[in-house]
Amino acid sequence: MLRTSSEAIALTYMNYYKDRTDNFFGFFLGTMIAGFFFVLTTILIMLPKIFSVNKTNMKVLSLFGYIVPEEVKKLADKCQQYMEDHLDEVDIQKEYSSYLYSKEILLKIFLNPYFQVKKKIKKREITIKKKNLSN
Q: What is the CB-side half-sphere exposure of residue 35 using CA atoms within 13 A?
């Protein structure tokens, strides 16, 4: 009698935990399937957009192939001339305007090494021209 009641109680606990495990497995399996379909749907939606962006990038980059290097050099020279002509004026105006002063700080932080090199090159060219003229 003690043995049969112990077996019955043990079977009751075993069935209880087995049912809980089966229910959890069903929940786990349902969650995994839902996640799989969510990821698959997201990939199917995003993949064409990714290829579209990549195709657009390739078109834009291919446009740069049409630019002649001589035109790039001309534009670079024009930009350099503009910077040389107008940056001195900006330096004078910066003393009187806080906006221009903040712009000066930004220029010094980001562009100063570039301009310093260009100014040194320009000064060297001028000194070489002066030496050539004096000779």
A: 6
